[in-house]
Amino acid sequence: MKLIGSSTSPYVRKVRIVMAEKKLDYRFAEESPWADDSQVSASNPLGKVPCLVMEGGEAVFDSRVIVEYLDTLSPVGKLIPSTGRERAEVKTWEALADGVIDAGVLARMEVTWQHRKESERSQAWIDRQFGKIRSGLSAMSQGLGEKPYCSGIHLSLSDIAVGCALGWLAFRFPEIEWRDDYPNLARLHDKLALRPSFVDTQPPAA
């Protein structure tokens, strides 16, 4: 399998961590969808990463779809419950974490996208996205409480998704002081950061 993606993308990092935790072999192809010469659209018509290319050439895209597929490939380290309320809980945690990232990406693009003039940038839009980030962090903290992991006592996709969201915020928005505001999230992040799967996928220095 070949995974196409950027090492700075939190969605790509989520997939890479799942592959590491599941002990799956793959080749990582570094590719930025924003580069002028990007070839991502050759595999994903939406031009987005991550994109998983199978041995037969067919592609699977969207990080949530990819990680769900990957979890079925090996019984090692089951990350998503098969059915029922437990499964819905883990997928909701993933949606919450991805939603925080989505808001952050929209805010960042409003500021940094080179094809938008300064006069076209909307501070109201940026503020709205930051409001979503704050609400998401509050919900994460409340849901985690004093539990060792988001969905109980074992590592699951919930924790991987949240860890990627927190790590990306620290990487792209260091001014958001979530560590001070939510010490339980800081403890979870620090614990996850020690796992080889997180260490090996740490985004490069900006």
From TrEMBL:
<dbReference type="Pfam" id="PF13410">
    <property type="entry name" value="GST_C_2"/>
</dbReference>
<dbReference type="GO" id="GO:0006559">
    <property type="term" value="P:L-phenylalanine catabolic process"/>
</dbReference>
<dbReference type="GO" id="GO:0006749">
    <property type="term" value="P:glutathione metabolic process"/>
</dbReference>
<keyword id="KW-0808">Transferase</keyword>
<feature type="domain" description="GST C-terminal">
    <location>
        <begin position="83"/>
        <end position="206"/>
    </location>
</feature>
<dbReference type="GO" id="GO:0004364">
    <property type="term" value="F:glutathione transferase activity"/>
</dbReference>
<dbReference type="InterPro" id="IPR010987">
    <property type="entry name" value="Glutathione-S-Trfase_C-like"/>
</dbReference>
<dbReference type="InterPro" id="IPR004045">
    <property type="entry name" value="Glutathione_S-Trfase_N"/>
</dbReference>
<dbReference type="InterPro" id="IPR036282">
    <property type="entry name" value="Glutathione-S-Trfase_C_sf"/>
</dbReference>
<dbReference type="GO" id="GO:0016034">
    <property type="term" value="F:maleylacetoacetate isomerase activity"/>
</dbReference>
<dbReference type="Pfam" id="PF13409">
    <property type="entry name" value="GST_N_2"/>
</dbReference>
<feature type="domain" description="GST N-terminal">
    <location>
        <begin position="1"/>
        <end position="78"/>
    </location>
</feature>
<dbReference type="InterPro" id="IPR036249">
    <property type="entry name" value="Thioredoxin-like_sf"/>
</dbReference>
<protein>
    <submittedName>
        <fullName>Glutathione S-transferase N-terminal domain-containing protein</fullName>
    </submittedName>
</protein>
<dbReference type="InterPro" id="IPR040079">
    <property type="entry name" value="Glutathione_S-Trfase"/>
</dbReference>
